[in-house]
């Protein structure tokens, strides 16, 4: 099965899982292993949730294709995330948004 990973998912993985040098390759390997083990359940809007084998609180949200999965985001369940929410939530106000017409920055001009 072909597994592709969005930049957003890599960023979320970097926030949640410490100590990885090759985030994209690691996500692909983890999703493939979990998918092969049958740890896949339906998610909203046609997506599927793939629960990691190594860390059962880590869930990859994917868009399925014929013979592929595109990892679009991920999150952690449970009370003890690897990176506390206070740190990742603090990043949200600085995230740039893209406006129609291709300009970023979040404000109309």
Explain how this protein is built:
The chain is α+β, with helices and mostly antiparallel strands and 109 residues long. Helix content is 27%, strand content 25%. The protein contains 3 helices and 5 strands; from the N terminus they run βααββββα. Strand 2 and strand 3 (48-51) form a beta hairpin. The N and C termini lie far apart (45 Å). The relative contact order is 0.19.
Give the name of the CATH architecture: 2-Layer Sandwich
CATH class: Alpha Beta
Helix segment tally: 3
Rg, alpha carbons: 15 Å
Under CATH, the topology can be stated as: YaeB-like fold
According to CATH, the homologous superfamily is RelE-like
Query: What's the pLDDT, averaged over the residues?
Result: 80
Percent strand equals 15-25%
Give, in spatial order, the strands making up the sheet with the most strands: 1-5-4-3-2
The largest pleated sheet is described as: 5 strands, mixed
Number of domains in the coordinates? 1
User: Quick one: how many beta strands?
Assistant: 5
What is the molecular shape? globular
Order of helices and strands: EHHEEEEH
Q: Spans of 5+ residues with little confidence (pLDDT < 50)?
A: 103-109
Terminal CA distance? 45 Å
């Amino acid at each position: 099965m072909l597994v592709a990973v969005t930049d957003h998912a890599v960023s979320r993985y970097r926030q949640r899982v410490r100590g990885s040098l090759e985030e994209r390759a690691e996500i692909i390997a983890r999703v493939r292993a979990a998918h092969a083990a049958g740890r896949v359940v339906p998610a909203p809007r046609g997506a599927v949730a793939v629960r990691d084998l190594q860390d059962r609180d880590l869930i990859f949200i994917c868009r399925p294709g014929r013979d592929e999965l595109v990892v679009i985001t991920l999150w952690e369940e449970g009370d003890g995330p690897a990176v506390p929410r206070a740190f990742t939530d603090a990043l949200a106000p600085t995230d740039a948004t893209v406006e129609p017409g291709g300009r970023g920055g979040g404000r109309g001009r």
